[in-house]
Amino acid sequence: MGFGLILPQLLNGLQFGILLFLLAAGLTLVFGIMSFVNLAHGSLYMLGAYFAATAYSLTASFTAAVLAAVGGCVVLGVVIERVAVSRLYSRDHLDHVLATFGMVLFFNEAVRMIWGPQAYFLPVPAALEGTVDLFGITYPAYRFAIIAVGLAVAVGAHYLMHGTRLGMLIRAGAVNPAMVGALGVNIKLLNALLFALGAAMAGLAGVMAAPILSVQAGMGEPVLITTLVVIVIGGIGSVSGAFYAALIVGVADTLGRAFLPTLLRELMSRDLANAAGPAMASMLVYILMAVVLAFRPEGLFPAGRKS
């Protein structure tokens, strides 16, 4: 198991972690700061991918696809927040779960009705079709671009939350919305902006993932589960925690799936290793979450900690 085999998997894990962060950052804003459980966040990711595929088929421009995905999800997020979510803020989390689970079913059926049951594919931009040489190995340029975009979003999100007045209002509104409202801040508008920002990140994740995954109905639910694991590990309400935890989960999941079956063959029979390896690899991130919850119930990087 040489360096030339491990490094590409590390980069794959980093790229997967960055995609998870794009989803987790938006979801932790809504879940951790607004205290709203939004299971439909994965549907926004799915719709972002569909918006991008449709825009590309009409314009043959990847830039147009990105704009369509992000802009379409922002508009959809505002509509969802105004029509449904804003009526649920005062309700308990069970109502949030039931309402947004209903949205998941609605959006999945709407996608099948509008785009059909077949999968769509978005090509890699021509400028990023090549590979990059790194320490003697070649790695797809587009996957490096995903890492770069995710890092830029992470820096922007950190600056927004800790270096702007809007971020200050968001953090204050999460702690004491009544007091912030009494000071003249429009809490309803602030919540709508926050939900729209989360939707934009979900749409961006969808369009970035579309060239390496098939675009199909229901693609948002599996990644949403992993995203929730990221938020729990990182610390609910912590954007920086979501970033660090996404990288940990992405690398652990990728390396586990790539190498765990091989390692198990050294400890047990090949047939048993082939059967147990993939199952244990798929459980790895959940085992990691259980360990974190056992020793750090608030997460590794909780919102109150400077990081």
From TrEMBL:
Keywords: Amino-acid transport, Cell membrane, Membrane, Transmembrane, Transmembrane helix, Transport
Cellular compartments annotated: Cell membrane
Topology relative to the membrane: Multi-pass membrane protein
Record has Transmembrane helix as a keyword: yes
GO cellular component: plasma membrane
InterPro entries per UniProt: ABC_transp_permease, BCAA_transport_permease
GO terms for biological process, alphabetical: amino acid transport
Signal peptide segment: none
Keyword check for Cell membrane: yes
Pfam families linked: BPD_transp_2
Family: Belongs to the binding-protein-dependent transport system permease family. LivHM subfamily.
PANTHER family attached to this UniProt entry: ABC TRANSPORTER ATP-BINDING PROTEIN, BRANCHED-CHAIN AMINO ACID TRANSPORT SYSTEM PERMEASE PROTEIN LIVH
Name this protein carries in UniProt: Amino acid/amide ABC transporter membrane protein 1, HAAT family
Phylogenetic classification of the source organism: Bacteria, Pseudomonadati, Pseudomonadota, Betaproteobacteria, Burkholderiales
